[in-house]
Design goal:
198 residues; globular; 22% helix; 38% strand
Length: 198
């Protein structure tokens, strides 16, 4: 990931990228760097993640950090986090009229629990089911939930981005049916780009 320096709260955007690279993820979460969007903001960094249990993927997601030192009225700030999380769910969950509210609650609660100060949160929660026919009729019915969201982190220094990374991890795991790790639990996972969960 190559990004030019940009000042923010006395530290450069390179610091934010370094924090994303060095963040320690829980064992079920495997994170890699991916190309970031080039035209939305002067500076951007992106990661993708897979959540796996016993070798089986149970969820996935992406997180993009955007930064414009001049500020962006739509963001109500100079930085924006854009998140996507998805996971398969039980078929009967898709018919629950409260599923969308619950899914959005996973995000807001994760941000609150991690003390990740933010503003201007927005997004969508989509739950869909699919049934196969014809030559695919032997495939099982499937249902999934997708949570697309963005929010503006209220930070004075890039080191405060850590709380938002932890909140995003909690969102991924909650979406995939895993509870967040209790406070004080030591993560034994390596860093971005390394083998995890072994």
């Amino acid at each position: 990931m190559t990004v030019p320096p940009a000042t923010h709260g006395g530290s450069s955007f390179d610091t934010a990228v370094a924090l994303m690279r060095a963040h320690r993820w829980r064992g079920e979460v495997s994170v890699t760097e991916i190309p970031s969007p080039q035209r939305i903001a002067p500076y951007a960094a992106a990661i993708s993640a897979e959540v796996a249990v016993d070798g089986d993927e149970v969820g996935s997601g992406r997180l993009v950090l955007l930064h414009d030192p001049a500020g962006n009225d739509a963001w109500d700030g100079t930085s924006r986090l854009v998140s996507y999380a998805r996971a398969d769910v039980d078929l009967d969950m898709v018919t629950d009229p409260l599923l969308a509210e619950v899914g959005w609650g996973w995000l807001t609660e994760a941000l609150e629990q991690r003390h990740a100060a933010h503003t201007a949160a927005s997004g969508t929660v989509t739950a869909v089911s699919s049934r196969c026919f014809g030559g695919m009729q032997d495939e099982p019915d499937r249902a999934e939930i997708e949570i697309r969201a963005s929010w503006t982190p209220l930070i004075d220094d890039w080191t405060q981005l850590e709380a938002h990374l932890n909140a995003w991890q909690d969102l991924l795991c909650l979406t995939a049916g895993l509870p967040p790790l209790p406070e004080g639990v030591v993560l034994l996972t390596p860093r971005i780009g390394s083998t995890r969960g072994r």
